Amino acid sequence: MKSWCKNLLAAGLSLAMLSACSSSDVEEEPVSELTAIQATVFPEVSWSASVGDGVGDYYSRLTPAVRYGKIFAADRYGEVVAFDEATGEQVWKKDFSEEFRDNALAKNKGARLAAGITAARNKLFIGGESGLLAALNAEDGQVLWHVIAGGELLSKPTVADDVVVVSTSSGSLEAYNVDTGAKLWVYDMQLPNLTLRGTGSAAYEAGGFFIGTADGKVAVVVKNNGQAAWEQAIYNPTGGSEFTRMADVDMTPLILGDNLYAVSYNGNLASMELRSGRVVWSRKYSSFNELATAGLSLFLVDDHSRIYSVDRRNGLELWSNSELVNRTLTSPEVYKDYLVVGDFEGYLHFIDRSTGSIVGRIQVDSAGLFSQPLVVDDKIYVQGRSGNLAVVTLP
To answer: Could you tell me which residue ranges the Pyrrolo-quinoline quinone repeat domain spans (predicted)?
Structure first.
């Protein structure tokens, strides 16, 4: 399998070459320069700490987790740290590269963590490009079990009751017992010849794992036996080349009531019935980012960092914002009355979610922000490429 587009940064190629991933022959728009805004909110960093050496220029979906009174974060090279949520003091630290140097990582160049962190069942679940999936005790960081999955792990594990599942770059969804690491089942998905680098995490609801596939589909896999209940395309790839036929659903399906929402690269944003997979509506958008939601709106950052608000009832566009085009925006997240996104220069932007206007910004890490902001209890947790972990609040 060949993997393109989102791993070009890791290969050290320039932004100009990133345009080769576009499905259009139209000349690319330049990177938007930041201009003065009429600020109405003034975010500030209320706490920050350094977590190892960060992720550098590598593709990564490492995100912090906040649970059990702690803030958990990791760097690419194997450092996993827990901070006390109230005081910000370090509680424990684990070095994966050292822990697994003589066994699971003996033939690998360090931990290369890229998938995680998921906090559940008093454990942390985290994985990496080597296929290593490990479960740690959330209280003290002790490694409880580890396995080697059948491919790279590039997205967060998903925990449902006594099962943890991971999506691998080789096109499989693998399930393990959360307490022992025993493999329960494997669901194999078809991989096209050319895909984006990256996989989406599964969503869990009503006994099924909902997962996007690399060929433009959403599938639901039954937790108890690993069999598909249904599989439905949200976009049928077309075009004369493998580039134009790329249609990865490289995000976690968003479940709201009786419907789920998913978006594909080069394809569509679609609403589907949860029970049957029937497509209720679809609209032409291209994205590999997570969706966010508030009220009746869906919020989407497309593959060129344009931001949209869409009515989730019918797919009608409510507003769009092109002021941050090609700034490599993170997936969006809702914070109070705002939408927050990070960019490649480390700015966190606050956008009025009713109008789409940028109303505030703050630079958190000059090396860049790369992962979706995490909102917990009126605080925004963001992780920068240099390893800076910060809490941003509005005074």
So the answer is: 78-321
